């Protein structure tokens, strides 16, 4: 049943209008977010006013989005303007998606409308010190006691952990792994800010300590012991968002290099007239289109409800993240010493792009998954008309 969020869902999800919003509101504040380690609250509010926080859910499901193709467009444009903001949109979308799809009625009634409206922000808590993101090895525990649950554990690298209101926490129960919706204001929750990360510095990363955190029975997301299924679905959304955001980084690098190569002169001619520079720009242009096409394929498969979207998303994420790092590295090289200063954004693009190769499943993990699928299916190619 649709939830009345009070947010207008009439925001046009065209690339032009999203691009204008990013150019006017998001991109001008990206350098400040990188410098200060936080997103301007006015930017978060502007996203809420346009229904961007609820975009992962279609209007018919109580959200403000119009499908996965449009979601890819949004996250690409957000990634072009500010990867830190896109990272917050990513983890928020993961938490909202899980809560809506597998959450109990009570949890949905309490949180869904606020998450869709951007009045509450969500975060994703999986990684731990010893286990990393190995789901089978996590040590955070959830034990049932009376009419509730008790959670104890320590989560690392929680994007948005400093400001999130709702935490999607993965823990072990007696019958297997499970996911839980945790109110970040719970007295059993403690946040430890993590400053000085390499990229996406404005995403306000934190460690989350759960110390005898008491939850109601209905805080569990999905059946007990089904946490792996929940994590698989949620991580697919996260990888999809990261892949789309990498297309945005590619586009940003391409624009920066085209602009700079047209203004900077070397040997009496603009840089853009030099063949080696043309080669760098050409590679960025091709990779941008290829990455956008792969993300678009994954999006269409999601809208169709096809199980092939899982592997399509892995392929899109692997290609787009790798291409974004290559493009950002070349963008810094093309800018020369200026590329290593804060006067130009390409240094930030490189730091942000490197993070994309690690989060939501590293590039190496994607290679393993893609190769395994190719071997099992004898390299069957999914074609989307």
Structural overview:
This protein has 385 residues and is of the alpha+beta class. It has three domains: 15-121, Acyl-CoA dehydrogenase/oxidase, N-terminal domain (Butyryl-Coa Dehydrogenase, subunit A, domain 1), CATH 1.10.540; 124-225, Butyryl-CoA Dehydrogenase, subunit A, domain 2 (Beta Barrel), CATH 2.40.110.10; 228-376, Butyryl-CoA Dehydrogenase, subunit A, domain 3 (Up-down Bundle), CATH 1.20.140. It has eleven helices and ten strands. The chain has helices at 15-26, 30-36, 41-49, 68-81, 83-102, 105-117, 227-263, 275-304, 309-335, 346-356, 363-376; strands at residues 122-125, 141-145, 148-158, 166-173, 176-183, 189-193, 206-216, 220-221, 265-266, 269-270. The strands form three sheets. The chain has a four-stranded mixed β-sheet, covered by helices on one side. Strands 2-3-7-6 form a four-stranded antiparallel β-sheet, with no helix packed on it. A hairpin with a 2-residue loop joins strand 2 and strand 3 (148-158). The two termini are 32 Å apart.
Major β-sheet, in short? Answer: 4 strands, mixed
The strand count comes to: 10
Mean pLDDT score: 93
Whole-number radius of gyration? 21 Å
* Residue share in β-strands: 15-25%
Q: Count helical runs.
A: 11
Sequence of strands across the biggest β-sheet: 1-4-5-8
Integer tally of domains: 3
Please, what is the CATH homologous superfamily of the largest domain? Butyryl-CoA Dehydrogenase, subunit A, domain 3
User: What structural category arises from helix and sheet content?
Assistant: alpha+beta
Order of helices and strands: HHHHHHEEEEEEEEHEEHHHH
Can you tell me the CATH topology of the largest domain?
Butyryl-CoA Dehydrogenase, subunit A, domain 3
Q: What is the CATH first-level class name of the largest domain?
A: Mainly Alpha
The CATH architecture classification of the largest domain is: Up-down Bundle
Q: Categorize the overall geometry.
A: globular
């Amino acid at each position: 049943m649709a939830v009345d969020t009070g947010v207008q869902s009439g925001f046009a999800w065209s690339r032009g209008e999203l691009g204008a919003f990013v150019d006017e509101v998001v991109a001008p504040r990206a350098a400040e977010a990188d410098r200060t380690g936080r997103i301007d609250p006015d930017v978060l509010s502007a996203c809420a006013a346009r229904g961007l926080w609820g975009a992962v859910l279609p209007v018919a499901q109580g959200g403000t989005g119009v499908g996965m193709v449009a979601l890819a467009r949004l996250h690409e444009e957000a990634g072009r303007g500010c990867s830190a903001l896109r990272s917050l949109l990513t983890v928020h979308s993961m938490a909202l998606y899980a809560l809506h799809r597998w959450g109990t009625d009570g949890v949905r009634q309490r949180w869904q409308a606020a998450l869709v409206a951007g009045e509450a922000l969500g975060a994703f808590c999986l990684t731990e010190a010893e286990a990393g993101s190995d789901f089978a090895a996590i040590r955070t525990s959830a034990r049932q006691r009376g009419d509730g649950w008790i959670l104890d554990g320590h989560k690392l690298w929680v994007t948005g952990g400093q400001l999130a209101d709702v935490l999607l926490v993965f823990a072990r129960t007696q019958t297997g792994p499970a996911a839980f919706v945790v109110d970040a204001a719970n007295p059993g929750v403690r946040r430890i800010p993590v400053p000085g990360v390499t990229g996406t510095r404005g995403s306000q990363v934190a460690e989350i300590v759960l110390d005898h955190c008491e939850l109601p029975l209905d805080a569990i997301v999905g059946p007990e012991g089904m946490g792996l299924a929940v994590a698989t679905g949620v991580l697919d959304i996260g990888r999809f968002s990261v892949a789309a955001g990498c297309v945005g980084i590619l586009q940003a690098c391409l624009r920066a290099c085209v602009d700079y190569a047209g203004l900077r002169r070397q040997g009496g001619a603009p840089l853009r007239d030099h063949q080696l520079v043309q080669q760098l720009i050409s590679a960025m242009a091709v990779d941008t289109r290829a990455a956008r096409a792969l993300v678009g394929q994954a999006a269409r498969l999601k809208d169709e409800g096809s199980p092939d979207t899982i592997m399509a998303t892995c392929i899109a994420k692997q290609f787009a993240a790798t291409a974004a790092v290559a493009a950002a590295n070349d963008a810094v090289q093309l800018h020369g010493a200026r590329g290593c200063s804060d006067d130009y954004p390409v240094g930030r693009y490189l730091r942000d792009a490197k993070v994309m190769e690690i989060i939501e499943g590293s590039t190496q993990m994607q290679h393993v998954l893609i190769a395994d699928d190719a071997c099992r299916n004898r390299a069957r190619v999914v074609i989307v008309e």
